[in-house]
Each structure stands twice: as C-alpha cells, then as structure tokens.
C-alpha cells in the first residue's frame, strides 16, 4: 500500500537551532498515527510542517503521492483540529461549519449535505442552531472536529484537541474520535503528551524526544519492548521500575544488583547485548508477583511497603528493597498497609535490560 503521507529527510531550524533532525516517516492510508512526547519534543512542530503552517528547512513532504512541501495549507487536502476551538462566537454551529465551505465557493446544496452528514456522524444535529456560548467544552470541540470533517478530505490532523477538557469529557471524546476513525477510515495524525490517549487511539505511536523519533511501533510493542529507557519511563503509569546494577560474565552473563542476581542465559537479546557493564533491569509494576505465589518465581526478594494507592480496580504499592524503590500493581481488594513486608517475585522473561551508557534496550 502506498503511504498516504511520506516524510523524507525533514529538517527544521529556527536560526542556528535545529528543531527537527532529519526525520523520515511513512504513514499508511487509513492509519491512525499518534505523535507522543513531552513538551518541546517537536511533535506539534512536525504536525505544523505537515499542515503547511511552518516552512521546512530541508526535506520533502508527500501527501497522497503528491509533493506538497511548498504548497499552501488549503492545497494539501487536510483538515486540522487545534487545541483551542477557535469558533466564531457570533455564528451558530451551522454557520461555523459552513464558513470555510462558503469561502471555497462550494455550492449551497452541497454545503447543506456536508453539514448534515457531519452533524449526524458527530451526533450534534440538536446543536446546529446554537451559538458557541451555549455549548459545553466537549460540544465546542466536537464542532471544531466537524469543521474539519465537512472539508471532505483524506487526512485529519489533531493537535492536542482534548487537553482543555476535564477528565470525563476527555475520556468521552476520545471514544468518539476512535469511533470516527473506524467509521470514516481516514488517515489521522494525532499529537498528544497523554500516553493513555496514545495507547488507546493509535495503530502506531511515534515517540519523540529532542526533535527525533526514538521509536515507531504499535502500542503493544512499545509497551512490552521499549527501544530505550526513556521510552520505557514515558509509557506506563506508574512508570517501569528500574533496578540499578550491572551485567557481568562473558559466556554465562548475569545481572547483579543490591537486591537481585540472576543468570541471563537463554533470554532473548538484541544484537547489542548482553555486554558487560552498568545496566538497568526494568520491570513493569504488574509483572511483579506479590504474596505466596512469589515463591515460584525465578528470583524472590522482600519489600517494605512505603505507600499505598487504592484505585478501585487496582491497588498500587510503593515498596523499598535493598535501598531500591519499586512500584507494585495488585488486585483492587488487596489488604496491605504501610510498614508491611511483602514477598516479591521477579520473572526476567517479562523484563527489559537497558545499557546505562546508551540507554538502549539490550
């Protein structure tokens, strides 16, 4: 399948500062790609380059097989939804949806048809005669999405569209956006710093840092096999646990730390590992076995409970063992208290080991 969007050797500099570093990215037709990263990583900048809102310094952008690197935004066949709703307050919802189409000289019957189709898709027919002041935040953002939808384009770009909403509205509208993608099948690129949005919406996630893409893969692969320690820390709540230690031995390598020491023979490694030297042993909170079952684990240790966070469906506990701190995820009905000592079990097959110098997964 030809990629719907192809980005080749893209660079962007502001003066002497290079913001995007030689990016290459292919996005398939109908794919939902999420650009994920912390503030300042370059994700919104990349989206604005694709939209034509920023002129690139070098490289090319192709949309639908056409080179649009220097095309105006209106000529790129995209619809964009911003963080701010940017609705015209004096116009009704219907007026806001029609405004861009009227400027594009679309015939009135077609405008009416497009608005009716978008309103039905987004379930906002009762809102068409209201003005933005009479809408909730979620309804306003739905209108902003509808304004992109009526343009009848193949590619939608979302720049943190839910960040101004409260938690309940974010969850509701996140579901609506996922359903919208399943219904329309359009290519969508979605920028966020929220890992839950990324994991639940994306076909693939591009995790960015410092203007570069650290890992591009499915949510499941990124969660289970993070390419670097930074990716492992960024994905997951609470974050992955890291035991500070080192890899020792040649033909029979072992990982050793203050709390753990085990044989690494027989485990899957990347071409870079295992290599002797300082390393981190990373394991997710839900992969630590707690209680009597820990006795069946390849390695056992004890942890003293520092803090308990009951979340209803889960219970999180922060424990210390040998001076190292770990988060443990347990059943929501787990009965534990601070100061209690818990038997813990680690399974190296569920873990990731990272080189301390390069931070790459070994």
TrEMBL record:
<dbReference type="InterPro" id="IPR015855">
    <property type="entry name" value="ABC_transpr_MalK-like"/>
</dbReference>
<dbReference type="InterPro" id="IPR012340">
    <property type="entry name" value="NA-bd_OB-fold"/>
</dbReference>
<dbReference type="Pfam" id="PF08402">
    <property type="entry name" value="TOBE_2"/>
</dbReference>
<dbReference type="InterPro" id="IPR003593">
    <property type="entry name" value="AAA+_ATPase"/>
</dbReference>
<dbReference type="GO" id="GO:0055052">
    <property type="term" value="C:ATP-binding cassette (ABC) transporter complex, substrate-binding subunit-containing"/>
</dbReference>
<dbReference type="GO" id="GO:0016887">
    <property type="term" value="F:ATP hydrolysis activity"/>
</dbReference>
<dbReference type="GO" id="GO:0008643">
    <property type="term" value="P:carbohydrate transport"/>
</dbReference>
<feature type="domain" description="ABC transporter">
    <location>
        <begin position="5"/>
        <end position="235"/>
    </location>
</feature>
<dbReference type="GO" id="GO:0005524">
    <property type="term" value="F:ATP binding"/>
</dbReference>
<dbReference type="InterPro" id="IPR017871">
    <property type="entry name" value="ABC_transporter-like_CS"/>
</dbReference>
<dbReference type="Pfam" id="PF00005">
    <property type="entry name" value="ABC_tran"/>
</dbReference>
<protein>
    <submittedName>
        <fullName>Carbohydrate ABC transporter ATP-binding protein, CUT1 family</fullName>
    </submittedName>
</protein>
<keyword id="KW-0067">ATP-binding</keyword>
<comment type="similarity">
    <text>Belongs to the ABC transporter superfamily.</text>
</comment>
<dbReference type="InterPro" id="IPR003439">
    <property type="entry name" value="ABC_transporter-like_ATP-bd"/>
</dbReference>
<dbReference type="InterPro" id="IPR013611">
    <property type="entry name" value="Transp-assoc_OB_typ2"/>
</dbReference>
<dbReference type="GO" id="GO:0140359">
    <property type="term" value="F:ABC-type transporter activity"/>
</dbReference>
<keyword id="KW-0813">Transport</keyword>
<keyword id="KW-0547">Nucleotide-binding</keyword>
<dbReference type="InterPro" id="IPR008995">
    <property type="entry name" value="Mo/tungstate-bd_C_term_dom"/>
</dbReference>
<dbReference type="InterPro" id="IPR027417">
    <property type="entry name" value="P-loop_NTPase"/>
</dbReference>
<dbReference type="InterPro" id="IPR047641">
    <property type="entry name" value="ABC_transpr_MalK/UgpC-like"/>
</dbReference>
């Amino acid at each position: 399948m030809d990629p719907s969007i192809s980005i080749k050797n893209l660079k962007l500099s502001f003066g002497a500062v290079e913001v995007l570093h030689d990016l290459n990215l292919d996005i398939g037709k109908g794919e939902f790609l999420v650009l994920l990263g912390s503030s300042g990583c370059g994700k919104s900048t990349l989206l604005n380059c694709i939209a034509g809102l920023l002129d690139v310094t070098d490289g090319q952008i192709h949309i639908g097989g056409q080179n649009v690197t220097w095309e105006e935004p209106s000529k790129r066949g995209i619809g964009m939804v911003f963080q701010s709703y940017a609705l015209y307050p004096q116009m009704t919802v219907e007026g806001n949806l029609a405004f861009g189409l009227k400027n594009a000289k679309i015939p009135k019957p077609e405008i009416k048809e497009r608005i009716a189709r978008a309103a039905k898709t987004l379930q906002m027919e009762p809102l068409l005669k209201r003005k933005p002041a009479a809408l909730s935040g979620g309804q306003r953002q739905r209108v902003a999405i509808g304004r992109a939808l009526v343009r009848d384009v193949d590619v939608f770009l979302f720049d943190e569209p839910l960040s101004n909403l409260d938690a309940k509205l974010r969850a509701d509208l996140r579901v609506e956006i996922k359903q919208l993608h399943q219904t329309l099948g359009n290519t969508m690129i979605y920028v966020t710093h929220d890992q839950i949005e990324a994991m639940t919406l994306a076909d693939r996630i591009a995790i960015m840092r410092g203007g570069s893409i650290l890992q591009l893969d499915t949510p499941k692969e990124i969660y289970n096999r993070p390419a670097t320690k930074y990716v492992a820390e960024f994905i997951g709540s609470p974050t992955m646990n890291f035991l500070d230690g080192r890899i020792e031995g040649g033909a029979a390598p072992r990982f050793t730390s203050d709390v753990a020491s085990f044989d690494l023979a027989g485990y899957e490694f990347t071409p870079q590992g295992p290599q002797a030297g300082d390393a981190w042993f990373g394991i997710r909170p839900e992969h630590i076995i707690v209680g009597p079952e820990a006795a069946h684990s390849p390695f056992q240790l004890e942890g003293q409970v520092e803090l308990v966070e009951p979340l209803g469906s889960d219970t999180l506990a922060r424990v210390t063992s040998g001076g190292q701190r770990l988060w443990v995820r347990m059943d929501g009905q787990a009965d534990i208290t601070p100061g209690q000592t818990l038997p813990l079990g680690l399974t190296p097959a569920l873990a990731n080991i990272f080189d301390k110098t390069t931070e790459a997964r070994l």
